[in-house]
Fold:
Amino acid sequence: MLRLLIGTGLLLMTVGFGAAGWQYWQSMPKAAVAAESPGAATPAVVARQGWLISPSGGLVRQEEVQAYLAQERYVPARTLRVKRQARLEDLLAEGEKLPEPAFLEVLADIRAPRVAEGLCEVMQASVAVGCAVNSARVVAGSVDPGAGTAMFQLELVYRLDEPEGGLPDLATHVLRSNVLSLELESGVAGAASPEAAVQALLDAVVAACTAEDVGQVCRPMQLSVEWVPGAPVTARAAIAWLDPLPKGMFVAPPLDTATGG
Amino acid sequence: MIRGPISLLIVGAVMLCGVALFALGPGFLLAVLPERLGGLLDRGMMGSFSGTLGTGETAADYLNDAPDGLKARGPIAAMSGNRPVFIDDVITGYTTRVGRDIPAEITTIRPISGCRLTPPLAGTEVGHVTAGATGLDLALFTYADQDLAGAVQGLVDRYRDRGATDVPQPSGLAYDAYDVAVTETRAPVYLVLENAARNRIWNIHLAPGARVERVILLGGTQAGVANLDPVVPVEVLPGAAMAACGIEPAYPLNPGHRFFEVLKDGPTTYKAEAEAKLVVMQDRIAAYNTWFRDSFGVTADDTRAGFDGGTISVVGPQPGEADPKATYAPIRGSRIRMTQDSYFEIVGQAPEGEDFASKVKAIATTFAFGDLKTLRQGVAF
Structure:
Protein backbone atom coordinates (compact mmCIF):
# COMPACT_ATOMS: atom_id res chain seq x y z
CA MET A 1 0.00 0.00 0.00
CA LEU A 2 2.84 2.34 0.96
CA ARG A 3 4.69 1.58 -2.26
CA LEU A 4 1.52 2.16 -4.27
CA LEU A 5 1.08 5.54 -2.58
CA ILE A 6 4.70 6.55 -3.15
CA GLY A 7 4.55 5.23 -6.71
CA THR A 8 1.44 7.27 -7.54
CA GLY A 9 3.01 10.35 -5.99
CA LEU A 10 6.20 9.89 -7.97
CA LEU A 11 4.24 9.36 -11.17
CA LEU A 12 2.34 12.58 -10.67
CA MET A 13 5.55 14.42 -9.78
CA THR A 14 7.28 13.02 -12.85
CA VAL A 15 4.49 14.19 -15.12
CA GLY A 16 4.20 17.60 -13.43
CA PHE A 17 7.85 18.43 -13.11
CA GLY A 18 8.69 16.76 -16.39
CA ALA A 19 6.30 19.15 -18.11
CA ALA A 20 7.77 22.08 -16.18
CA GLY A 21 11.31 21.03 -17.08
CA TRP A 22 10.37 20.60 -20.69
CA GLN A 23 8.84 24.07 -20.75
CA TYR A 24 11.95 25.49 -19.07
CA TRP A 25 14.28 24.07 -21.67
CA GLN A 26 11.95 25.03 -24.45
CA SER A 27 11.96 28.60 -23.15
CA MET A 28 15.76 28.85 -23.45
CA PRO A 29 17.00 30.70 -26.52
CA LYS A 30 17.71 28.27 -29.34
CA ALA A 31 21.23 29.61 -29.84
CA ALA A 32 22.06 28.91 -26.19
CA VAL A 33 20.80 25.34 -26.49
CA ALA A 34 22.88 24.82 -29.60
CA ALA A 35 25.94 26.23 -27.87
CA GLU A 36 25.46 23.83 -24.95
CA SER A 37 25.43 20.74 -27.13
CA PRO A 38 28.76 20.70 -28.95
CA GLY A 39 30.06 17.78 -30.89
CA ALA A 40 26.93 17.28 -32.93
CA ALA A 41 28.46 16.44 -36.26
CA THR A 42 26.96 18.36 -39.12
CA PRO A 43 26.68 16.03 -42.07
CA ALA A 44 27.57 17.43 -45.43
CA VAL A 45 24.41 18.58 -47.14
CA VAL A 46 24.14 17.31 -50.67
CA ALA A 47 21.35 18.57 -52.86
CA ARG A 48 19.84 15.60 -54.60
CA GLN A 49 16.55 13.87 -55.11
CA GLY A 50 15.74 12.12 -51.84
CA TRP A 51 13.56 9.32 -53.17
CA LEU A 52 13.79 6.44 -55.59
CA ILE A 53 11.16 4.40 -57.34
CA SER A 54 10.88 0.67 -57.02
CA PRO A 55 10.19 -1.50 -60.09
CA SER A 56 6.56 -1.84 -58.99
CA GLY A 57 6.14 1.94 -58.94
CA GLY A 58 6.24 2.44 -55.16
CA LEU A 59 8.79 4.37 -53.17
CA VAL A 60 11.97 2.64 -52.08
CA ARG A 61 12.52 2.59 -48.28
CA GLN A 62 14.54 5.60 -47.10
CA GLU A 63 17.36 3.54 -45.58
CA GLU A 64 17.82 1.77 -48.92
CA VAL A 65 17.74 5.12 -50.71
CA GLN A 66 20.46 6.40 -48.38
CA ALA A 67 22.51 3.23 -48.74
CA TYR A 68 22.43 3.63 -52.49
CA LEU A 69 22.70 7.39 -52.92
CA ALA A 70 24.50 8.88 -49.89
CA GLN A 71 28.10 8.13 -50.82
CA GLU A 72 29.50 11.35 -49.36
CA ARG A 73 29.16 9.82 -45.88
CA TYR A 74 28.77 6.50 -44.11
CA VAL A 75 25.22 5.24 -43.60
CA PRO A 76 24.01 2.46 -41.29
CA ALA A 77 22.45 0.38 -44.05
CA ARG A 78 25.58 0.10 -46.23
CA THR A 79 27.67 -2.44 -44.40
CA LEU A 80 30.06 -5.32 -44.62
CA ARG A 81 29.32 -7.79 -41.83
CA VAL A 82 31.93 -10.42 -41.13
CA LYS A 83 31.50 -13.22 -38.64
CA ARG A 84 34.81 -14.92 -38.24
CA GLN A 85 36.82 -17.10 -35.96
CA ALA A 86 40.19 -15.93 -34.71
CA ARG A 87 42.92 -17.26 -32.47
CA LEU A 88 43.08 -15.54 -29.10
CA GLU A 89 46.85 -15.44 -29.27
CA ASP A 90 46.55 -13.20 -32.31
CA LEU A 91 45.08 -10.55 -30.02
CA LEU A 92 48.16 -10.36 -27.83
CA ALA A 93 51.01 -7.90 -27.99
CA GLU A 94 54.53 -9.20 -28.27
CA GLY A 95 55.63 -10.98 -25.11
CA GLU A 96 52.11 -10.91 -23.66
CA LYS A 97 50.41 -14.05 -22.34
CA LEU A 98 46.75 -15.03 -22.30
CA PRO A 99 45.01 -14.25 -18.99
CA GLU A 100 43.10 -16.70 -16.81
CA PRO A 101 40.20 -18.41 -18.64
CA ALA A 102 37.60 -16.24 -16.85
CA PHE A 103 39.03 -13.15 -18.57
CA LEU A 104 39.36 -14.53 -22.10
CA GLU A 105 35.96 -13.36 -23.32
CA VAL A 106 36.32 -9.78 -22.11
CA LEU A 107 39.90 -9.66 -23.47
CA ALA A 108 38.57 -10.84 -26.84
CA ASP A 109 35.78 -8.27 -26.75
CA ILE A 110 38.13 -5.39 -25.94
CA ARG A 111 40.60 -6.39 -28.61
CA ALA A 112 38.07 -7.43 -31.24
CA PRO A 113 38.92 -4.44 -33.50
CA ARG A 114 42.28 -6.15 -34.08
CA VAL A 115 40.65 -8.96 -36.03
CA ALA A 116 38.96 -6.40 -38.28
CA GLU A 117 42.30 -5.03 -39.39
CA GLY A 118 42.98 -5.67 -43.06
CA LEU A 119 39.34 -5.82 -44.14
CA CYS A 120 39.12 -2.12 -44.99
CA GLU A 121 42.23 -2.45 -47.14
CA VAL A 122 40.50 -5.16 -49.16
CA MET A 123 37.39 -3.01 -49.55
CA GLN A 124 39.37 0.05 -50.58
CA ALA A 125 41.51 -1.88 -53.02
CA SER A 126 38.37 -3.03 -54.78
CA VAL A 127 35.18 -0.95 -54.67
CA ALA A 128 35.29 1.45 -51.72
CA VAL A 129 36.75 4.94 -51.50
CA GLY A 130 36.28 5.05 -47.75
CA CYS A 131 35.91 2.37 -45.10
CA ALA A 132 35.68 2.25 -41.29
CA VAL A 133 35.09 -0.33 -38.58
CA ASN A 134 31.74 0.51 -37.01
CA SER A 135 31.74 -2.26 -34.44
CA ALA A 136 33.81 -5.26 -33.51
CA ARG A 137 32.64 -7.57 -30.73
CA VAL A 138 33.28 -11.08 -29.59
CA VAL A 139 30.27 -13.37 -29.94
CA ALA A 140 29.10 -14.04 -26.37
CA GLY A 141 29.83 -17.57 -25.23
CA SER A 142 32.00 -18.36 -28.26
CA VAL A 143 35.36 -18.48 -26.49
CA ASP A 144 36.87 -21.95 -26.56
CA PRO A 145 39.67 -21.91 -23.96
CA GLY A 146 40.87 -25.35 -25.05
CA ALA A 147 41.26 -24.46 -28.71
CA GLY A 148 42.23 -20.87 -27.89
CA THR A 149 39.70 -19.41 -30.34
CA ALA A 150 36.63 -17.19 -30.35
CA MET A 151 34.08 -15.98 -32.86
CA PHE A 152 33.89 -12.29 -33.67
CA GLN A 153 31.14 -10.20 -35.22
CA LEU A 154 32.51 -7.27 -37.19
CA GLU A 155 30.64 -4.51 -38.96
CA LEU A 156 32.33 -2.19 -41.41
CA VAL A 157 30.78 0.73 -43.22
CA TYR A 158 32.05 2.02 -46.54
CA ARG A 159 31.61 4.66 -49.19
CA LEU A 160 31.70 4.23 -52.95
CA ASP A 161 32.89 6.53 -55.67
CA GLU A 162 30.40 8.58 -57.64
CA PRO A 163 30.23 7.63 -61.33
CA GLU A 164 31.95 9.89 -63.82
CA GLY A 165 29.41 12.33 -65.15
CA GLY A 166 27.20 11.86 -62.10
CA LEU A 167 24.02 9.91 -61.62
CA PRO A 168 21.37 9.78 -64.34
CA ASP A 169 18.03 11.53 -63.80
CA LEU A 170 16.68 9.58 -60.84
CA ALA A 171 13.10 10.55 -61.61
CA THR A 172 13.23 8.57 -64.82
CA HIS A 173 14.74 5.42 -63.35
CA VAL A 174 13.76 2.66 -60.97
CA LEU A 175 16.05 1.03 -58.43
CA ARG A 176 16.44 -2.68 -58.96
CA SER A 177 18.23 -5.05 -56.64
CA ASN A 178 19.48 -8.58 -56.42
CA VAL A 179 21.14 -10.80 -53.83
CA LEU A 180 24.19 -12.89 -54.63
CA SER A 181 25.02 -15.94 -52.60
CA LEU A 182 28.49 -17.41 -52.58
CA GLU A 183 29.65 -20.71 -51.15
CA LEU A 184 33.34 -21.46 -51.15
CA GLU A 185 34.59 -24.91 -50.27
CA SER A 186 37.45 -25.00 -47.82
CA GLY A 187 40.74 -25.27 -49.62
CA VAL A 188 39.91 -22.89 -52.44
CA ALA A 189 41.76 -19.59 -52.60
CA GLY A 190 38.79 -17.50 -51.43
CA ALA A 191 38.40 -19.55 -48.26
CA ALA A 192 41.97 -19.11 -47.06
CA SER A 193 41.22 -16.09 -44.84
CA PRO A 194 38.41 -13.64 -44.10
CA GLU A 195 40.17 -11.07 -46.27
CA ALA A 196 40.30 -13.57 -49.15
CA ALA A 197 36.63 -14.38 -48.65
CA VAL A 198 35.71 -10.69 -48.77
CA GLN A 199 37.82 -10.30 -51.88
CA ALA A 200 36.05 -13.27 -53.51
CA LEU A 201 32.68 -11.73 -52.65
CA LEU A 202 33.69 -8.35 -54.08
CA ASP A 203 34.89 -10.07 -57.26
CA ALA A 204 31.49 -11.74 -57.51
CA VAL A 205 29.81 -8.35 -56.99
CA VAL A 206 31.89 -6.75 -59.74
CA ALA A 207 31.10 -9.64 -62.07
CA ALA A 208 27.37 -9.46 -61.27
CA CYS A 209 27.33 -5.71 -61.81
CA THR A 210 28.76 -6.07 -65.30
CA ALA A 211 26.17 -8.64 -66.37
CA GLU A 212 24.10 -7.73 -69.42
CA ASP A 213 20.78 -7.49 -67.60
CA VAL A 214 22.14 -5.07 -65.00
CA GLY A 215 21.57 -1.39 -65.65
CA GLN A 216 23.50 1.72 -64.67
CA VAL A 217 25.46 2.54 -61.53
CA CYS A 218 25.43 -0.93 -59.97
CA ARG A 219 26.49 -0.74 -56.33
CA PRO A 220 27.01 -3.20 -53.46
CA MET A 221 24.64 -2.42 -50.59
CA GLN A 222 24.94 -5.00 -47.83
CA LEU A 223 27.71 -7.57 -47.76
CA SER A 224 28.16 -10.44 -45.34
CA VAL A 225 30.76 -13.14 -44.91
CA GLU A 226 30.98 -15.99 -42.42
CA TRP A 227 34.40 -17.53 -42.11
CA VAL A 228 35.70 -20.37 -39.96
CA PRO A 229 38.98 -22.07 -40.81
CA GLY A 230 38.54 -25.43 -42.48
CA ALA A 231 34.83 -24.91 -43.09
CA PRO A 232 33.02 -23.77 -46.23
CA VAL A 233 32.68 -20.00 -46.49
CA THR A 234 29.22 -18.54 -46.91
CA ALA A 235 28.86 -15.02 -48.25
CA ARG A 236 26.01 -12.84 -49.49
CA ALA A 237 25.87 -9.52 -51.26
CA ALA A 238 22.89 -7.30 -51.97
CA ILE A 239 23.47 -5.17 -55.05
CA ALA A 240 21.34 -2.40 -56.56
CA TRP A 241 21.31 -0.52 -59.85
CA LEU A 242 19.21 1.88 -61.89
CA ASP A 243 17.05 0.83 -64.81
CA PRO A 244 14.96 3.14 -66.98
CA LEU A 245 11.31 3.48 -66.01
CA PRO A 246 9.31 0.63 -67.50
CA LYS A 247 7.08 1.61 -70.41
CA GLY A 248 3.75 2.95 -69.30
CA MET A 249 5.01 3.96 -65.83
CA PHE A 250 4.81 7.65 -64.95
CA VAL A 251 6.26 9.31 -61.94
CA ALA A 252 4.19 11.22 -59.41
CA PRO A 253 6.76 12.71 -57.01
CA PRO A 254 5.99 12.82 -53.28
CA LEU A 255 3.61 15.59 -52.28
CA ASP A 256 5.59 18.29 -50.47
CA THR A 257 4.60 21.76 -49.38
CA ALA A 258 5.13 24.17 -52.24
CA THR A 259 8.04 26.55 -51.81
CA GLY A 260 6.95 29.81 -50.28
CA GLY A 261 3.51 28.61 -49.53
CA MET B 1 17.98 32.83 -14.32
CA ILE B 2 19.90 30.73 -11.78
CA ARG B 3 16.79 29.93 -9.71
CA GLY B 4 15.31 27.74 -12.42
CA PRO B 5 18.11 25.13 -12.49
CA ILE B 6 18.41 25.18 -8.67
CA SER B 7 14.69 24.46 -8.31
CA LEU B 8 15.01 21.65 -10.81
CA LEU B 9 17.97 20.25 -8.85
CA ILE B 10 15.98 20.31 -5.58
CA VAL B 11 13.00 18.67 -7.23
CA GLY B 12 15.32 16.11 -8.83
CA ALA B 13 16.92 15.28 -5.48
CA VAL B 14 13.51 14.84 -3.82
CA MET B 15 12.37 12.60 -6.65
CA LEU B 16 15.58 10.59 -6.50
CA CYS B 17 15.03 9.95 -2.79
CA GLY B 18 11.45 8.94 -3.52
CA VAL B 19 12.49 6.57 -6.29
CA ALA B 20 15.19 5.05 -4.05
CA LEU B 21 12.71 4.59 -1.20
CA PHE B 22 10.21 3.08 -3.61
CA ALA B 23 12.68 0.74 -5.27
CA LEU B 24 14.96 -0.22 -2.37
CA GLY B 25 12.47 -0.10 0.48
CA PRO B 26 12.82 1.27 4.00
CA GLY B 27 16.19 -0.50 4.41
CA PHE B 28 17.71 2.14 2.14
CA LEU B 29 16.42 4.94 4.35
CA LEU B 30 17.79 3.25 7.46
CA ALA B 31 21.20 2.86 5.85
CA VAL B 32 21.64 6.53 4.93
CA LEU B 33 20.01 8.29 7.87
CA PRO B 34 22.06 9.33 10.93
CA GLU B 35 22.30 6.52 13.46
CA ARG B 36 20.02 8.05 16.14
CA LEU B 37 17.22 8.92 13.70
CA GLY B 38 17.63 5.59 11.94
CA GLY B 39 17.36 3.76 15.24
CA LEU B 40 14.07 5.50 16.03
CA LEU B 41 12.68 4.62 12.63
CA ASP B 42 14.07 1.10 12.84
CA ARG B 43 11.97 0.41 15.92
CA GLY B 44 8.82 2.15 14.73
CA MET B 45 8.89 1.90 10.99
CA MET B 46 8.50 -1.80 10.41
CA GLY B 47 5.20 -1.88 12.22
CA SER B 48 3.75 1.49 11.39
CA PHE B 49 4.59 1.73 7.69
CA SER B 50 4.14 -1.92 6.79
CA GLY B 51 0.87 -3.45 5.72
CA THR B 52 -0.76 -5.44 8.50
CA LEU B 53 -3.42 -8.03 7.85
CA GLY B 54 -5.46 -7.44 10.99
CA THR B 55 -5.40 -5.13 13.95
CA GLY B 56 -1.66 -5.45 14.31
CA GLU B 57 -1.99 -6.75 17.83
CA THR B 58 -0.77 -10.26 17.10
CA ALA B 59 2.40 -11.34 15.35
CA ALA B 60 0.34 -13.28 12.79
CA ASP B 61 -1.11 -9.96 11.62
CA TYR B 62 2.33 -9.14 10.19
CA LEU B 63 2.84 -12.39 8.30
CA ASN B 64 1.80 -12.13 4.69
CA ASP B 65 0.79 -15.35 2.94
CA ALA B 66 1.94 -13.93 -0.39
CA PRO B 67 1.91 -15.48 -3.88
CA ASP B 68 5.71 -15.75 -3.73
CA GLY B 69 6.03 -17.10 -0.20
CA LEU B 70 5.55 -16.21 3.44
CA LYS B 71 6.73 -12.65 4.02
CA ALA B 72 7.32 -10.86 7.30
CA ARG B 73 5.71 -7.42 6.91
CA GLY B 74 6.52 -6.11 10.34
CA PRO B 75 8.58 -6.67 13.49
CA ILE B 76 8.17 -10.43 13.62
CA ALA B 77 10.51 -13.41 13.83
CA ALA B 78 9.96 -17.02 12.75
CA MET B 79 9.83 -19.81 15.31
CA SER B 80 9.94 -23.54 14.71
CA GLY B 81 7.11 -24.60 12.38
CA ASN B 82 7.13 -21.04 11.04
CA ARG B 83 5.02 -19.60 13.84
CA PRO B 84 5.39 -15.82 13.96
CA VAL B 85 6.40 -14.03 17.15
CA PHE B 86 7.13 -10.39 17.89
CA ILE B 87 10.86 -9.70 17.75
CA ASP B 88 10.67 -7.69 20.96
CA ASP B 89 9.32 -10.77 22.75
CA VAL B 90 12.40 -12.88 21.98
CA ILE B 91 15.40 -10.55 21.76
CA THR B 92 16.50 -7.26 23.27
CA GLY B 93 18.30 -4.51 21.36
CA TYR B 94 17.43 -5.85 17.94
CA THR B 95 18.42 -3.80 14.89
CA THR B 96 18.73 -4.27 11.17
CA ARG B 97 21.26 -1.45 10.81
CA VAL B 98 24.24 -3.60 9.97
CA GLY B 99 25.42 -2.10 6.68
CA ARG B 100 28.41 -0.33 8.21
CA ASP B 101 29.32 -2.89 10.87
CA ILE B 102 32.91 -4.09 10.67
CA PRO B 103 33.86 -7.25 12.56
CA ALA B 104 36.94 -7.35 14.77
CA GLU B 105 38.23 -10.70 13.62
CA ILE B 106 37.63 -12.80 10.53
CA THR B 107 38.72 -16.43 10.26
CA THR B 108 38.51 -18.26 6.98
CA ILE B 109 37.03 -21.74 7.06
CA ARG B 110 36.55 -24.29 4.31
CA PRO B 111 33.52 -26.36 3.31
CA ILE B 112 33.60 -30.01 4.32
CA SER B 113 34.82 -32.54 1.82
CA GLY B 114 32.28 -35.20 1.00
CA CYS B 115 28.62 -35.28 1.88
CA ARG B 116 28.48 -36.54 5.48
CA LEU B 117 27.89 -34.05 8.25
CA THR B 118 28.57 -34.75 11.91
CA PRO B 119 25.24 -35.78 13.47
CA PRO B 120 23.92 -34.19 16.68
CA LEU B 121 24.77 -35.82 20.00
CA ALA B 122 22.06 -37.51 21.98
CA GLY B 123 20.15 -35.10 24.19
CA THR B 124 20.72 -32.02 22.08
CA GLU B 125 17.98 -29.92 20.54
CA VAL B 126 18.14 -29.44 16.78
CA GLY B 127 17.35 -25.92 15.69
CA HIS B 128 16.59 -25.61 12.01
CA VAL B 129 16.56 -22.17 10.39
CA THR B 130 15.94 -21.37 6.74
CA ALA B 131 16.32 -17.96 5.10
CA GLY B 132 16.17 -16.33 1.70
CA ALA B 133 17.84 -13.02 0.86
CA THR B 134 17.26 -10.40 3.54
CA GLY B 135 18.64 -7.33 1.79
CA LEU B 136 20.70 -6.60 4.91
CA ASP B 137 23.97 -6.35 3.03
CA LEU B 138 27.09 -6.21 5.16
CA ALA B 139 30.18 -4.23 4.29
CA LEU B 140 31.89 -7.53 3.51
CA PHE B 141 32.02 -9.03 0.07
CA THR B 142 33.81 -11.77 -1.75
CA TYR B 143 34.33 -12.50 -5.40
CA ALA B 144 36.09 -14.60 -7.99
CA ASP B 145 37.76 -13.96 -11.33
CA GLN B 146 34.38 -14.48 -13.04
CA ASP B 147 32.93 -11.57 -11.05
CA LEU B 148 35.88 -9.35 -11.97
CA ALA B 149 35.57 -10.34 -15.63
CA GLY B 150 31.84 -9.56 -15.55
CA ALA B 151 32.52 -6.15 -14.03
CA VAL B 152 35.22 -5.43 -16.65
CA GLN B 153 32.71 -6.31 -19.38
CA GLY B 154 30.19 -3.99 -17.69
CA LEU B 155 32.74 -1.17 -17.67
CA VAL B 156 33.57 -1.78 -21.34
CA ASP B 157 29.88 -1.73 -22.29
CA ARG B 158 29.21 1.48 -20.33
CA TYR B 159 32.30 3.15 -21.77
CA ARG B 160 31.29 2.23 -25.30
CA ASP B 161 27.73 3.30 -24.65
CA ARG B 162 28.27 6.66 -22.93
CA GLY B 163 31.95 7.06 -22.12
CA ALA B 164 31.44 6.33 -18.41
CA THR B 165 34.45 4.99 -16.49
CA ASP B 166 32.77 4.48 -13.11
CA VAL B 167 32.65 1.00 -11.59
CA PRO B 168 29.52 0.58 -9.47
CA GLN B 169 29.63 -1.33 -6.21
CA PRO B 170 29.11 -4.94 -7.28
CA SER B 171 25.69 -6.29 -6.47
CA GLY B 172 25.12 -9.80 -5.23
CA LEU B 173 28.66 -10.21 -3.90
CA ALA B 174 28.08 -8.85 -0.39
CA TYR B 175 27.34 -11.19 2.48
CA ASP B 176 23.87 -10.48 3.76
CA ALA B 177 23.05 -10.88 7.41
CA TYR B 178 20.41 -13.06 9.01
CA ASP B 179 19.80 -13.14 12.74
CA VAL B 180 19.27 -16.27 14.80
CA ALA B 181 18.08 -15.81 18.37
CA VAL B 182 18.72 -18.90 20.52
CA THR B 183 16.31 -19.02 23.46
CA GLU B 184 16.68 -22.75 24.16
CA THR B 185 18.40 -23.11 27.52
CA ARG B 186 17.34 -26.57 28.65
CA ALA B 187 19.77 -28.44 26.36
CA PRO B 188 22.65 -27.68 24.02
CA VAL B 189 21.51 -26.65 20.56
CA TYR B 190 22.66 -28.15 17.28
CA LEU B 191 22.01 -25.45 14.68
CA VAL B 192 21.21 -26.28 11.06
CA LEU B 193 21.18 -22.98 9.19
CA GLU B 194 20.00 -23.28 5.63
CA ASN B 195 20.56 -20.48 3.17
CA ALA B 196 18.77 -19.83 -0.12
CA ALA B 197 20.69 -16.61 -0.85
CA ARG B 198 24.17 -16.27 -2.32
CA ASN B 199 26.53 -15.15 0.47
CA ARG B 200 25.33 -15.18 4.04
CA ILE B 201 26.54 -14.36 7.55
CA TRP B 202 24.39 -15.92 10.26
CA ASN B 203 24.50 -13.72 13.35
CA ILE B 204 23.90 -15.73 16.52
CA HIS B 205 22.28 -14.12 19.57
CA LEU B 206 22.15 -16.25 22.68
CA ALA B 207 19.85 -15.99 25.65
CA PRO B 208 21.71 -16.28 28.97
CA GLY B 209 22.40 -19.97 29.57
CA ALA B 210 21.98 -21.03 25.93
CA ARG B 211 24.72 -23.32 24.57
CA VAL B 212 25.52 -24.23 20.98
CA GLU B 213 26.93 -27.69 20.32
CA ARG B 214 27.65 -27.41 16.60
CA VAL B 215 26.63 -25.29 13.63
CA ILE B 216 25.86 -26.65 10.17
CA LEU B 217 25.69 -24.12 7.33
CA LEU B 218 23.82 -25.44 4.31
CA GLY B 219 23.27 -23.93 0.86
CA GLY B 220 24.26 -20.68 -0.78
CA THR B 221 27.67 -19.90 -2.20
CA GLN B 222 29.72 -18.55 0.70
CA ALA B 223 28.62 -18.69 4.32
CA GLY B 224 29.80 -17.72 7.75
CA VAL B 225 28.72 -17.29 11.30
CA ALA B 226 29.16 -14.33 13.64
CA ASN B 227 29.17 -14.10 17.42
CA LEU B 228 29.75 -17.81 17.94
CA ASP B 229 32.13 -19.16 20.57
CA PRO B 230 35.36 -20.11 18.75
CA VAL B 231 35.30 -23.60 20.28
CA VAL B 232 31.98 -24.49 18.63
CA PRO B 233 32.61 -26.49 15.45
CA VAL B 234 31.16 -25.16 12.19
CA GLU B 235 30.58 -27.36 9.14
CA VAL B 236 29.73 -25.87 5.75
CA LEU B 237 28.06 -27.62 2.83
CA PRO B 238 27.43 -25.01 0.09
CA GLY B 239 24.60 -25.24 -2.42
CA ALA B 240 26.78 -26.60 -5.23
CA ALA B 241 28.18 -29.31 -2.93
CA MET B 242 24.65 -30.21 -1.80
CA ALA B 243 23.62 -30.61 -5.43
CA ALA B 244 26.69 -32.75 -6.11
CA CYS B 245 25.66 -34.92 -3.16
CA GLY B 246 22.16 -35.27 -4.59
CA ILE B 247 20.62 -33.16 -1.82
CA GLU B 248 17.91 -30.81 -3.03
CA PRO B 249 16.17 -28.69 -0.39
CA ALA B 250 12.39 -28.72 -0.89
CA TYR B 251 9.55 -27.49 1.32
CA PRO B 252 5.78 -27.33 1.02
CA LEU B 253 4.57 -24.07 -0.50
CA ASN B 254 2.52 -21.64 1.59
CA PRO B 255 -1.27 -21.83 1.07
CA GLY B 256 -1.37 -18.43 -0.61
CA HIS B 257 1.30 -19.30 -3.17
CA ARG B 258 0.38 -18.56 -6.79
CA PHE B 259 0.98 -22.22 -7.61
CA PHE B 260 -2.21 -23.13 -5.73
CA GLU B 261 -4.14 -20.37 -7.52
CA VAL B 262 -3.21 -21.99 -10.82
CA LEU B 263 -4.06 -25.39 -9.43
CA LYS B 264 -7.48 -24.17 -8.30
CA ASP B 265 -8.57 -21.65 -10.91
CA GLY B 266 -6.08 -21.86 -13.77
CA PRO B 267 -6.88 -22.91 -17.34
CA THR B 268 -7.23 -26.66 -17.87
CA THR B 269 -3.86 -27.08 -19.59
CA TYR B 270 -2.05 -25.20 -16.80
CA LYS B 271 -3.95 -27.17 -14.16
CA ALA B 272 -2.82 -30.50 -15.61
CA GLU B 273 0.77 -29.25 -15.70
CA ALA B 274 0.51 -27.92 -12.14
CA GLU B 275 -0.89 -31.23 -10.88
CA ALA B 276 2.07 -33.08 -12.41
CA LYS B 277 4.44 -30.56 -10.83
CA LEU B 278 2.77 -31.00 -7.45
CA VAL B 279 3.47 -34.73 -7.53
CA VAL B 280 7.14 -34.09 -8.37
CA MET B 281 7.30 -31.43 -5.65
CA GLN B 282 5.88 -33.78 -3.04
CA ASP B 283 8.42 -36.44 -3.97
CA ARG B 284 11.22 -33.91 -3.55
CA ILE B 285 9.88 -32.76 -0.19
CA ALA B 286 9.71 -36.36 0.99
CA ALA B 287 13.25 -37.07 -0.26
CA TYR B 288 14.63 -33.99 1.49
CA ASN B 289 12.79 -34.86 4.70
CA THR B 290 14.32 -38.34 4.58
CA TRP B 291 17.84 -36.97 4.12
CA PHE B 292 17.29 -34.38 6.84
CA ARG B 293 15.96 -36.95 9.32
CA ASP B 294 18.83 -39.35 8.52
CA SER B 295 21.35 -36.54 9.05
CA PHE B 296 19.88 -34.65 12.01
CA GLY B 297 17.17 -36.84 13.50
CA VAL B 298 14.26 -34.48 12.71
CA THR B 299 12.28 -33.74 9.54
CA ALA B 300 12.96 -30.53 7.67
CA ASP B 301 9.48 -29.13 7.06
CA ASP B 302 8.16 -29.58 10.63
CA THR B 303 11.12 -27.92 12.31
CA ARG B 304 11.75 -25.14 9.85
CA ALA B 305 11.94 -21.62 11.30
CA GLY B 306 12.27 -19.00 8.61
CA PHE B 307 9.92 -17.15 6.30
CA ASP B 308 10.73 -16.61 2.64
CA GLY B 309 11.02 -12.92 3.49
CA GLY B 310 12.26 -12.04 6.96
CA THR B 311 15.38 -11.15 8.91
CA ILE B 312 15.32 -13.22 12.08
CA SER B 313 14.43 -16.69 13.35
CA VAL B 314 14.19 -18.08 16.84
CA VAL B 315 15.55 -21.40 18.02
CA GLY B 316 13.85 -22.44 21.22
CA PRO B 317 10.69 -21.44 23.03
CA GLN B 318 9.24 -17.97 23.32
CA PRO B 319 10.54 -16.61 26.61
CA GLY B 320 7.90 -16.08 29.25
CA GLU B 321 7.68 -12.85 31.20
CA ALA B 322 10.23 -14.08 33.73
CA ASP B 323 12.55 -15.80 31.25
CA PRO B 324 15.51 -13.94 29.85
CA LYS B 325 15.38 -13.05 26.18
CA ALA B 326 18.26 -13.41 23.75
CA THR B 327 20.53 -10.39 23.68
CA TYR B 328 21.37 -8.81 20.37
CA ALA B 329 25.06 -9.21 19.52
CA PRO B 330 26.20 -6.73 16.87
CA ILE B 331 28.33 -7.65 13.86
CA ARG B 332 30.45 -4.62 14.72
CA GLY B 333 33.46 -5.86 16.67
CA SER B 334 32.39 -9.49 16.41
CA ARG B 335 34.30 -12.64 15.51
CA ILE B 336 33.30 -14.16 12.22
CA ARG B 337 34.16 -17.52 10.74
CA MET B 338 33.38 -17.65 7.04
CA THR B 339 34.13 -19.29 3.72
CA GLN B 340 35.41 -16.93 1.06
CA ASP B 341 35.87 -16.86 -2.69
CA SER B 342 39.22 -16.00 -4.32
CA TYR B 343 39.09 -12.39 -3.12
CA PHE B 344 37.65 -10.88 0.05
CA GLU B 345 37.13 -7.22 0.77
CA ILE B 346 35.73 -4.96 3.45
CA VAL B 347 34.11 -1.87 1.95
CA GLY B 348 36.39 1.13 2.39
CA GLN B 349 39.22 -0.85 3.96
CA ALA B 350 41.06 -2.21 0.91
CA PRO B 351 44.46 -0.59 0.28
CA GLU B 352 44.40 2.06 -2.42
CA GLY B 353 44.43 0.51 -5.85
CA GLU B 354 43.49 -2.93 -4.56
CA ASP B 355 39.76 -2.50 -4.15
CA PHE B 356 37.26 -4.09 -6.52
CA ALA B 357 36.76 -0.98 -8.67
CA SER B 358 40.50 -0.37 -9.02
CA LYS B 359 41.10 -3.97 -10.02
CA VAL B 360 38.35 -3.77 -12.65
CA LYS B 361 39.76 -0.53 -14.09
CA ALA B 362 43.30 -1.89 -14.07
CA ILE B 363 42.29 -5.04 -15.95
CA ALA B 364 40.26 -3.07 -18.50
CA THR B 365 43.12 -0.62 -19.03
CA THR B 366 45.68 -3.42 -19.45
CA PHE B 367 43.48 -5.21 -21.97
CA ALA B 368 42.98 -1.90 -23.80
CA PHE B 369 46.76 -1.52 -24.20
CA GLY B 370 46.90 1.15 -21.50
CA ASP B 371 44.27 3.47 -22.91
CA LEU B 372 40.54 3.10 -22.34
CA LYS B 373 39.92 5.41 -25.30
CA THR B 374 40.72 2.48 -27.57
CA LEU B 375 37.47 0.92 -26.39
CA ARG B 376 35.45 3.48 -28.31
CA GLN B 377 33.66 2.13 -31.33
CA GLY B 378 31.14 3.40 -33.81
CA VAL B 379 31.06 5.70 -36.77
CA ALA B 380 29.23 9.04 -36.64
CA PHE B 381 26.57 8.65 -39.30
Chain B touches chain A through 32 residues (CB under 8 Å). Residues 64-238+300-375 of chain B form one domain.
